[in-house]
Structures are given as structure tokens and as C-alpha cells.
Design a protein that fits this description.
about 30% helix; alpha+beta; 3 domains; Guanine Nucleotide Dissociation Inhibitor, domain 1; about 550 residues; FAD/NAD(P)-binding domain; Polyamine Oxidase, Chain A, domain 2; seven-stranded mixed sheet
Length: about 550
């Protein structure tokens, strides 16, 4: 297959950010790029704004709009939880007896700074007991994290450590060519993608232009058709670094995602990620949030206002409405008829399924074995795929919780299973990892699983080839006084900052202000926010 025809591109001046450049390029190459990004004039007086969805996008939009003098009310379908895909499940009220069923880590990078600015903003407005404390997140522990693929173990019979597997990749049993079998999966992926990153460092415009040449391809197609990779080589790299069929998704999407895991310092929130949305709700005011309120219909009224029909017969009327929802939830609401491309975007934008099961044990046995894992994650080709060890409570003598995590095609395999069978299979996979070291069943107390395809979010945004170029900009355009937000409407897919970015953009549209800044602590300089919202919204010239 020949590569796509190169398109002249240019990064926004003074914005050396791949995501910002991609955002501007998407705007400039949109099928409807001649339509102004922000269509509203700045309103006079306070608006009454309804926000459907109290995930991070809806909560952030409410904070921004309230900060600018407007009145907001949020509608959340869940009866007892807000935060969307920020979901902390607590087995009990004791310390560290929880796991993150949704978002669990925060990369402290330049492009993620709006999230850290939000933490600063919230912390100046809530009492000390509700402030957000960031602690280190341990992404890897090579000597304690385990690898079990293709049924292979070390000669001693014990499960390989990540360090052993990295030193002896040929022992993993993948049928690779002689020149590849002594390389780690990460090394092979770096060989394929590092030329783009090196070119970005040398000449950002040229590097970016080279990346977007392949915007309509999947990473799988790029590797097999253009780089000559065998199916076995793809399987090796995908198995060891990602999830089954992940590489079938957008080349640009996965190149950008790979940069998120390059050189980041990682954080998480002490005592649970849900402290962030709950603190946001406290600042907004709980009386401005209606829980257990699934929205059934959005109706344009003759006077230009918008009616929100929720529950069975309840209705509220607003000057503006934001649908801060994933596409699957928007699609189930009775809405006005929109353009075919908008409708296609809502129907087609791809969300990858996610599955997690948190398992609670009498002790943190993974920290007490001869090769202890202090945080990090083990990898296998078993149905559970990834075993994630908590970065909080390391060294505790009390009971502990770890989680098993799979996504993409691996997650679908868990959907038909009932909860008791999910628990049985999870314990089986853990016992396989710790065979001859720990009796996992004797340590087990309880478990709780979350299959995201059963939730409103259905998973997280991860576009197929061409979906950014064809659907993204049309999907985030407002329809009259109805606006849209959610991490799928940002180039920051899968991250909380994507929800923040999309919410800020919706607020810019409503207020007619492309210069509207992210929230930040009063009196603080907005440092590190290299995502240039105004430049990207305007996208003045052509340049996942």
C-alpha cells in the first residue's frame, strides 16, 4: 500500500505541541472548516445553563461558567455517584481499601497542566479536609512485576519478572525473525515510531507533516504494509505493550498516546480519584446538581430556549444546554434532527471497551513475596491481561486491594460472565502468576467488577482511522443553543484533561470568547499550558 499524499501543514506559532498542532490541522482540514469555530456573540447578563452529565466535562463546564457569572444546573443519571469515568470503588471506609474502576493515573506533563491547575483552583475553595493531595503513581517495578505469556516461565519454574523478560525477550516464545527475537516489544515499537519523534525534535513542522500523512491509516496497517512487519511481530508488540486489536485503531491516535507514556512523571490522588469530582461538586454547590435524573428529551422552544425533559415527567428550561455525555448516551436521548454528519459522528465515533475487577486480600501479598512488587503492573496473555498493584498504601500491614485490567477486545470476553465467574477466573489468573509462591485463594476476601460497556460511557474514546478528520469537528459544533462536551471531543482522548479541554471549548462557544482560560488558582500565573486554545480554535491556515 502506498502512503497517503502529503498535506502541507504548519504548527501553531509558538506552540511546540503535537496535540495542539493536530488540533489546528484538524480544524483546517475539516469538511466544514470555513465555519467559524466560535459562533456565539458574548452574551449580556447572566445565562441560565443546563448541563446534562456530571462527569468531569460537565463539572468543569459548570465551574467555568459559574466563575464567569452564569447560573448552571447539572443532571446526572446515576443515583449515588458523579464523576463519570472517574470511579473509585470502596470496599469499606478503612484506609486504602479501594480501587480505581476508572481513571487511575495522571501524567504530569506540559499538556496535562490544565488538570493540575484545576486541582490548585479547587484546593483554594474547599476546606482542608476535602483538598486534593497528589501522590506519586508507580507505573513500573521491573523486578517485582511479572510476565506470563505463551505459557513460558523461567527455567526454575517461577514466573518471569519484567526485568528477566526484558533481558531475555527470546524466552517469551514468540515466533520472531532472528533479527527481532532478542529485542523487547518496546524497542521494536520505538524503532518504528522514533523517527517521527526525532524529526519532531529537529524540525517540528516537518515531523508533524510526516505524521499526518498517515492519518487515515491504522497503526496495524502502517506497521504491516509500510514497515513490513509480520503478523507475529505485531502480535508480540501488541501483547506486551497494549491490548488485543488495539493497533487496529488510528495511527495518529496511537502515536500521540505513545507520547503520553514517554518521560512523564506520574501522579494519582491520595484516598481515591473520586475526591476530585466530589470536590468540584462541592464548589459548584450540591443544590445545583440533580442526581438520579436520566434525561429523556432535549427540545428547542420557539423563544430560543431549550427544554430538558428528565426522569418521567420533569422539565426545566434553560438559555443554553451542554450535553456533556459520551456519544452512546447522547444517541439514546430524543433530540432535534441534526445534520447527517453530526448524526454519523454520534453513532460512529469509536469507544474502546474497558473491564476492571478489584480484588481485596487479607494482606498485600504481592509486596511480601521474595520478589515484591511495589506498585507497577504485571502482564499476561491470560484473560485478565494486566494486574495493577496500588501505588497507595505501599508497605501497609493491613488488607490490600489490587485490580485486574483489560481493554479493547480483551474486555469483551468478560461481558457474558456473571460476577461469581469473573471472580473465579480472576483468582485463577492471579494464581497462575503466583504459582508456587502464594495461595491466592486463601488470601482472598472479596471482589467487585466494572464492565464499562454496561455503563453510560461504554469505555473511553479511541478513534478508528479517519474519524478525527471526518467527524471530530462536526461532532463538537454547537446546534443552535445546544452544545457538546466530553473527552471524545478533544484530542486528549482517554485522559481527564480531555474532558477539561472539551468543556472549556464548549464554554468558549457559549460565551463567544476564544481567549477564555482554563481554571487556575487565583493570583497564579498560568504556567505550562502549552495547549493554545485560542490558536487551535481559530485554526487560521492549513498547516491520531
Amino acid at each position: 500500500m502506498s502512503s497517503a499524499k502529503p498535506i502541507p501543514v504548519s504548527a501553531p506559532q509558538g506552540t511546540p505541541s503535537l496535540r495542539a498542532a493536530y488540533q489546528a490541522w484538524l480544524n483546517a482540514n475539516s469538511p466544514r472548516s470555513n465555519k467559524p469555530a466560535v459562533t456565539a456573540s458574548r452574551p449580556e447578563g447572566a445565562l441560565k445553563i443546563g448541563i446534562v452529565g456530571a462527569g468531569m466535562a460537565g463539572l468543569y463546564a459548570a465551574l467555568v461558567l459559574q466563575e464567569n457569572g452564569h447560573t448552571c444546573h447539572l443532571f446526572e443519571a446515576q443515583p449515588d455517584r458523579l464523576g463519570g469515568r472517574v470511579y473509585t470503588h470502596r470496599f469499606n471506609a478503612e484506609k486504602n481499601q479501594y480501587f480505581e474502576a476508572g481513571a487511575m493515573r495522571l501524567p504530569d506533563t506540559e499538556e496535562q497542566q490544565p488538570l493540575f491547575h484545576l486541582v490548585d483552583y479547587i484546593n483554594q475553595k474547599v476546606p482542608a479536609s476535602k483538598r486534593i493531595e497528589l501522590i506519586p503513581y508507580q507505573l513500573y517495578d521491573d523486578t517485582g512485576d511479572l510476565v506470563f505469556v505463551n505459557g513460558r516461565r523461567e527455567l526454575s519454574g517461577q514466573t518471569m519478572s519484567v526485568a528477566f523478560a526484558n533481558a531475555h525477550p527470546e524466552a517469551l516464545g514468540f515466533p520472531l525473525s532472528p533479527e527481532d527475537r532478542n529485542k523487547t516489544a518496546s524497542q521494536l515499537l520505538d524503532e518504528a515510531l522514533s523517527p517521527f519523534l526525532q524529526l519532531l525534535e529537529k524540525d517540528f513542522d516537518a515531523g508533524f507533516a510526516e505524521i499526518v500523512k498517515y492519518d487515515n491509516l491504522s497503526l496495524f496497517t502502517y506497521l504491516t504494509e509500510l514497515k513490513g512487519w509480520s503478523i507475529e511481530k505485531v502480535n508480540y508488540v501488541e501483547t506486551m505493550t497494549s491490548a488485543t486489536n488495539q493497533f487496529q485503531q488510528s495511527f495518529t491516535e496511537l502515536v500521540i498516546e505513545s507520547m503520553d507514556f514517554s518521560g512523564a512523571q506520574w501522579k494519582t490522588i491520595a484516598n481515591g480519584m473520586d475526591r476530585l469530582p466530589n470536590a468540584c461538586a462541592d464548589v459548584i454547590g450540591r443544590d445545583h446538581i440533580t442526581m438520579d435524573a436520566p434525561v429523556r428529551k432535549i427540545e428547542n422552544l420557539p423563544d430560543g430556549r431549550v427544554a430538558v425533559h428528565y426522569r418521567e415527567r420533569d422539565v426545566q428550561v434553560f438559555d443554553r444546554v451542554i450535553l456533556a455525555l459520551p456519544p452512546a448516551a447522547v444517541r439514546m436521548i430524543d433530540t432535534p434532527q441534526w445534520s447527517p454528519t453530526k448524526t454519523q459522528g454520534i453513532r460512529a465515533m469509536h469507544f474502546e471497551p474497558l473491564y476492571k475487577i478489584g480484588m481485596r486480600f487479607k494482606s498485600r501479598f504481592w509486596e511480601k513475596v521474595p520478589r515484591p512488587a511495589n506498585g507497577g503492573q504485571s502482564i499476561s496473555d491470560l484473560p485478565s491481561r494486566w494486574c495493577v498493584y496500588p501505588s497507595y498504601g505501599i508497605g501497609d500491614d493491613d488488607a490490600g486491594v489490587l485490580l485486574l485490567y483489560s481493554w479493547m477486545t480483551d474486555a469483551y470476553d468478560w461481558l457474558p460472565q456473571q460476577e461469581d465467574e469473573r471472580i473465579r477466573l480472576g483468582l485463577r489468573d492471579l494464581q497462575t502468576l503466583y504459582e508456587g509462591v502464594v495461595d491466592v485463594h486463601a488470601e482472598f476476601i472479596e471482589a467487585f467488577s466494572v464492565a464499562w460497556p454496561d455503563k453510560w460511557a461504554t469505555g473511553d474514546a479511541m478513534f478508528f482511522p479517519g474519524q478525527f478528520r471526518r467527524l471530530f469537528n462536526v461532532a463538537r459544533e454547537n446546534e443552535g443553543h445546544i452544545y457538546f462536551a466530553g473527552e471524545h471531543l478533544s484530542v486528549h482522548h482517554t485522559w481527564i484533561v480531555g474532558a477539561i479541554d472539551s468543556a472549556l471549548y464548549a464554554c468558549q462557544q457559549i460565551l463567544g470568547d476564544t481567549e477564555l482560560e482554563p481554571l487556575h488558582r487565583e493570583g497564579a500565573e498560568l504556567v505550562g499550558n502549552d495547549y493554545d486554545y485560542s490558536a487551535c480554535a481559530a485554526a487560521p491556515a492549513p498547516s491520531k
